[in-house]
Amino acid sequence: MAIDPKKTFSDNEIVERLKADLPKWRLEDGWIRRTYRTSSWKGTLMVINAVGHLAETAWHHPDITASYAWVEVRLMSHDAKGVTERDFQLAKKIEEFISWRPGSVEGSALAGTPEGDLRFAYIKHD
Question: What pTM was estimated for this model as a whole?
């Protein structure tokens, strides 16, 4: 069955979907939103660039607001005038990518960003 890219979800459907699939995201003013806390401007820019890459690849573009130590990502399909499956799918990909912690995966050859050393601080994981 094909997904209708312009089918919008009701507020109740969005809230239930976020609870089930994206618990750190929230619905506010017609957008699904997530704020990522970073450790510095460097981390903030890295998050913005990562989100930008994923969004451009998906050809679905979020609104982004940033400050020194945080980035807010907002998704809503302008052409559909609401939250659609495209928004949920891009939010899931962003969440997986930004929240990835290779050092926490047992058996991973990738150590992950060193914790406790502010020289390497990047994302503040919730």
Answer: 0.90
